[in-house]
Amino acid sequence: MLALLRMYRARATFFLVGTSIRQRPELVHEMVADGHAIGNHTARHTRLMPLDMVEVRAEIAGCDAALRRCGVTTRLFRPPGGRYDTRILDTVNAEGLTVVHWTVNPGDYTRPGVEVIAQRVLDQATNGSIVLLHDGCEQTLVALPRILQTLIEHGYSFVTIDEMLDRYAGPVRERKFSLPVLP
Fold this sequence. Notes:
mainly alpha; TIM Barrel; 2 domains; two-stranded parallel sheet
């Protein structure tokens, strides 16, 4: 995936799980060197809703510790499955993190097929979209060149979430939201 993003000069934001960071720290270094942003996706990709706040903080801290060992700090957080409530949101915000959701979800993790993944992204993407893709899905890797090429041909560029938030910063206080369209 990194080679494809490099080829199309596209920057992305990767929400990483602590266990994956510890297994492949060199990938984190490569992502950062290529200009990608990194976000916290918990220590073990554990669903947060059933956990108490001590466990939620431990999940956040576990990922942060793995990132720090790679020399990375982040202000971005995505809860596993995108599920959270106000107590989790308050905890995340108290840790200095901003919850980031997505606006386009092609469901690549269900492996619906290369064409379906590409078409769902292309049908839904608009200026300012945050597209949810998973780096471990072979179908996503095959669909990505078509997605990137088509969106580039339509005048889109690809920025990190950090770049978007620098323009439109503020804590998220609701369960559902989307970032404004970029000019």
